[in-house]
Design goal:
Length: about 270
């Protein structure tokens, strides 16, 4: 455990709470974690649950931090960052906010260039997330390792060489859980329309997704091969997949993900305006 790593969170919402839960007493001591949030109830809950230090406002305490985690909504980021400027020295700034580009954070922080931008996803709330990460040139080897350790507290990490790839990551994994939920919803609805109860349909659909995902994760074969193994020509699975292909399901998913990536890029430009 890196007991001496001092981490400050700006924002104490759900994702911050998930990270704190994976860090406190593991990567670093709870006393080394400082949380700033205007919501007194959120702070009280975090303090009681994890024994972290809390504050309702940004102050000089942050100057002693090794890492500052930006966990506020994108719309609030510029105003929050402006308050950080007097307290920024050589700390690593780690952003988990969607749509906020590192180049804009650096500009708002008066040229500070030790920034890691990340794109986590909601399964991080149960320690099963995956996070895309990209570092600016000013991030040291030690800071990169610290950023990786922080995000691994809630799942896996994937490092990128180009920040532009954060938008495709957003489309695949950031927004991805919603696609899975959408597909499960369709399976649940079909189950009920075919005569199964709501409880039966829910159990069958969710367990099928969980089991298939674990199989794909553990198998040495590509998912296409796994699909072919359960698709006998003329059989039930073949009938289902043929219907999906005829309806353009695969291409619709691809188009949807490209739309998500394009929206991510547009949001970056929108949020990055002065």
């Amino acid at each position: 455990m890196q007991n001496n790593l001092k981490i400050s969170f700006i924002g104490g919402g759900n994702m911050a709470a998930a990270l704190i839960g994976g860090l406190a007493g593991k990567l670093t001591a709870a006393a080394n974690i400082h949380v700033v949030d205007i919501n007194a109830d959120s702070l009280a809950k975090l303090q009681q649950q994890f024994r972290v230090r809390t504050s309702s406002e940004i102050d000089a305490t942050l100057a002693a931090s090794d890492v500052i985690v930006l966990a506020v909504k994108p719309q609030q980021m510029k105003g929050v960052v402006a308050q950080l400027v007097p307290h920024i020295t050589g700390q690593l700034v780690l952003s988990i906010a969607a749509g906020i580009r590192a180049v804009d954070l650096s500009r708002w922080l008066k040229g500070h260039n030790a920034i890691v931008r990340t794109m986590p996803n909601t399964p991080a709330l149960i320690g099963k997330g995956i996070t895309g990460m990209v570092a600016t040139e000013g991030v040291s080897v030690e800071q990169r390792a610290a950023a990786d350790a922080i995000m691994r507290a809630v799942g896996e990490t994937v490092w990128l060489d180009d920040e532009k790839l954060i938008d495709p990551v957003t489309a695949v994994s950031g927004s991805g859980p919603a696609y899975v939920f959408y597909f499960i919803e369709a399976m649940q609805q079909a189950a009920q329309e075919m005569g199964l109860t709501e409880e039966q349909g829910n159990a069958l659909a969710i367990s099928t997704f969980v089991g298939a995902a674990h199989l794909a994760e553990q198998s040495a074969d590509p998912v296409g091969v796994l699909r072919e193994r359960v698709t006998s020509k003329g059989g039930t699975t073949y009938a289902a997949l043929t219907s999906m292909e005829a309806s353009g399901v695969k291409q619709s998913i691809i188009n949807a993900m490209k739309a998500a990536a394009a929206r991510g890029q547009a949001l970056g430009e929108e949020f990055g305006q002065d």
